[in-house]
Amino acid sequence: MVCRFELPKSMFNDCHDGICYIANIKNGRKFGDFIEKTLLCNESAHNVINNICDEYNYTSSSEEYKNNEEFENNKDKLLIFTKLPVIILIRLMISLDKEDVVSQLTGAYPIAMTPNKCTCMNIIVGRRKNEDNSYNIDKFSLYYPNNHLCYKLYGKNWPILNGYAFRTAVLNGILNRSDLNKLRFNEIIQNKDINFIKESYGLKIDDLSEYEYCAYIEGVSSETSQEHLSRIENMVKHMVKAYHGEQGVLALSYDKKEKEENITALEGEFKLFKKYAMVNSGITEITPTNI
Q1: Is the distance from CB of 17 to CB of 9 less than 8 angstroms?
Q2: How far apart (Å, rounded) are the C-alpha atoms in residues 131 and 174?
């Protein structure tokens, strides 16, 4: 299914002739109920999107789309994004006025720098309107460090639970690779009386995942799904205890209400991840964790 829309001028540099299509990626992968998708754009939209990415130091990748017969009456050259930064998806989610187009944007969007080795996905769940008519965007991230193994284990239906990850967006600052690197080597200053050691929870940052701007949870073959999710939840709670506060490295939630309640982006994304991971894995409840 292909959904056509005009690039909203308000959030995309007053572009007057930008045309985009939301399309399912032909490999047919799914992450829970989220289908892998991307954007196809005419040259005007493509140039504006790339300029925004360059302005904020995000990396996009694209290539010419060769198969245009599915686009009725389209005479433009089209380019397909193979790597689409989340800043573009968020701008679309907060500026599109047609709800049918917004609903089509929900899905899994590739963001990997090395897509032949690993899989990174931004999962766009939807948007919610605030009292001031602005929007909160519901999203979370997934990361799978070994494509070959995942295709062997899961085929084209990759479980959400096995892909838990967080990206540098949950840390203060933009593209905060410095603190991600410090977290990798347990060098971030912690709050008093807290001793967070990421290896205790299976939290991993290696050369490839650091290059991909994310941290992930290693699987344990003997774990049940409930135990795996409980371990992630415990890790999130301990990270917040260790790294949240006036001098902490964790960013506050981008959800207005959560931010007012001093909830971190790490907690907000995990709450959303947990909801969909439980449904996808058939988990009805998990054992509460204590700090």
Answers
A1: no
A2: 27
